[in-house]
Structure formats: C-alpha cells, structure tokens
Amino acid sequence: MPLIVPIESLQPGMKVAGDVLGDGGQLLLARGARLSHQRIESLRRYGILSIKVLLPSDEEEADEALVPSNIALKVRRQIREIYDFARSKKALPEEVLYEVTEEIASIIEGIFSASNLVFSDMKHLANYDEYTYEHSWMATLFSLALMRVAAEEGLVVYPDFQTRLDLGIGALLHDIGKMRILPEILNKPGPLSAEEWEIMKMHPQWGWEMVRKNSTIMPLARGIVLHHHQRWDGTGYGPASGILLKGGEIPEVVRLVTIADTYDALISDRPYRPAFLPVEALEILKEEAGTKLDPNLAPLMSEIAIDYPTGCVVISRDGAIVNVNAPSRRGGPIRGLVIGSISERSWALVGKEAEIPRSSIRCGGNSLDNLARRLKRRPEEVSSIAQIDCNLSLKALPPWQKLLERALKPLIQG
Ligand SMILES: [Fe+2]
Q1: CA of 235 to the centre of ligand 1 (A)
Q2: What is the residue range of 294's domain?
Q3: How many CB atoms lie within 10 A of CB 38?
Q4: Radius of gyration (C-alpha) of the chain in whole angstroms
Q5: In this model, does residue 164 exceed pLDDT 80?
Q6: Residue 64's pLDDT is what?
Q7: 283 & 351 share domain
Q8: If you average pLDDT over residues 76-101, what whole number do you get?
Q9: Bigger pLDDT: 140 or 100?
Q10: How many whole angstroms from 251 Cα to the centroid of ligand 1?
Q11: Distance between CA atoms of 388 and 411, rounded to whole angstroms?
C-alpha cells in the first residue's frame, strides 16, 4: 500500500506512487518516477507538502492501489473550490488559508490512497444539503488551523500525519448523520419543536453508524463524528447510549472540531437567525470557554480568525455607516469607506475613507443584507442613535442608496 510521506522525509530512490500535480493541474512528477535530490527540491519549490511513495516491498504489486491521474486532478480542483469558497467567506487570513488548504490536499490524497468512500459520502451530502456540505469544509479548515496554532502555543503536541488525517476526516464527516434528517427540519426557519429537536440530536449517532461501516475511517475520526456535540462541562449529546464524556476525557481532536463547528455555525447565516460578525462569534467562544468548550483551546480562534473581515458593514456610534475595505490590525481601528450616514451630525463625510476605533462601533453585519436582517430582528441595537438624532435622516452614496434604505428601513421608519 502506498505511504504518504511529508516532503521533509522524502529520500532519493523512493518510487512515486501516483502522479504529482501542481496547483494548475500540471504534471510535476509521473507515477513510477524515482525521486532524486533535484526532484525533491523541485517539489518543495512548488509548495508540495507530501506525496505518496511505494514501500520497496510493495513496488511490484501496487499498481491497482494507485490513484489515477484524472482522480488526482479532481482532488486538486476540489481543493481549489474549497480555497475559493473559504476565501470568499473571508474567514481566515490568506496565509493561514493557503497553509491549511495545502494540508487538506494531502489529507484528501490520503483518503484517496485508502478509499474513495469518504468522497462519495461528501458528494451525497453536497446534493442533500448545501449548507451542511460547505459548513463541513469550513469546520475542517478551522480545526486544522486551530491545531496548528494550539501546537505553536505549546498547548498541544503537534500530532503525526495519521492523527491530522483523522482530524481532517472526522471534521469533514462530523455532520454526515444529518443526511438522515428531513430538509424541513434541517432548514426550518423557526425554532425546532421538542420532537424535532430529539431527531436533530440523533445526527452524531447516525453519522457514527454510517462511518463505522467504512473500515478505512479510523476510530479517532469516528469518535469526532460521535462526540462533536459533547461539551467540556459534561453536558451535550451524542451517543445513543447516553454516556457522555467530560473535560479532558474528550479527545483533543474532538474538542478542536467542537470549537471549529461552533464558530462556523455562528458566523453563518441560518434560516432561523442571521450570522454573527466574527468579532461577536469570537466573544461568544470566549464566554463559552470552560463551560461548553475547552477553556484553553476556545480562545485560540481569536488568534487566527479575522474579526472584522473585508466587506462587512458597521455603524459607528456617531451614525457613520462604513463598508470595511481593509484588513485591520488586532485591536486597531477599522478602516473603510463611509457609504452612508444616519445622523446629520455624523463626524464622517459620506464617500470618504474613515478609520473608526473599535470602541465606537455600535453594530454591524457581514454584508448589508445581513445587517438588514439583524436590524429587523433587533432594532434596539441602533435605537439609541435614533433617540439622539430626532431628525433622523439617511445620506448615502448613490450606488448604495437603495441597499441602505432597505437595510435601515426599520430605523428610518422609527
Ligand atoms: Fe453537528
């Protein structure tokens, strides 16, 4: 069976077990090629993190287990898709995102070297529920990024490749059991009834039953599927047995996925509530550290996530509506374009670039639509601005006028 070897452990003379492709799908090394110092160096320059090689004993009979190059190319495309999706969500800084998607590339290749059942499960999930599919990829990205930062901070020992593989597979499949739940329940716009909630709580157990049939998924990965809704304080749900783990009894990889899962759910628009801004989601994680979530690992999300991502819209206490257009330094002011003002006395002129201290941000959303949904649900978030300015008016840049009017309707009418 081919072995995945990280780039730093490759040795001249090893035989390549599958075509090695670059980001654009170009062939870097054909399967069957022998490695040399030069070739290893060249792979390193292309940013390849690991490749599959044959063990000497397997070289003769391994042909059947090899991944055909057309499948490997599909893997590369899939990675590109994940990367683009995550980038559009602006959830992680570019350099972290790049590193983690590269890690996922080796994980996906790892899955392929053993079985393509995981991939077919994911394909079914994509067809069944798009949100859960995308959420699963984001949870995987966040889990791997968290693992790296936790290791850098000395909170965990950086695990070997197999454990990272298990973490990736477990995160990818953590919600696979939701395929047994009707879409009407999964995407219900309002709160679930007690009966529906009981069904929802079955998904870790159902997911575990599904992945248990796949012998290539290791117990650690299966454990993530079964236990990802168990909380640090011993509450939560998961196994049908009702036996719950607590604190350090919950494997580290499970605790990481639980944090990543919680964070992505918070920053996503759901039918029953609009998304939170990352900065708010990070606060929630900190509040839940020690109760629902691992007290040491949960705050780490703040180290990697972008709290006010480019594209989000915030309203200052002075009534300036700002479209964030530049990454901000941690704790530093938010920079963006003032697209409107809801106060005659706003300090910022519409159309100007502005810098707002974080302390003067009143509310916001990851987009104008999101902000509109939030204001509709909770107009009190901005009501004090309305109280200050009795003659409330809206000034806006022409291209934003209609969008802003719609977004701020609850307030303007007030
Ligand atoms: Fe879940």
Answers
A1: 15
A2: 115-304
A3: 9
A4: 24
A5: yes
A6: 41
A7: no
A8: 75
A9: 140
A10: 16
A11: 13
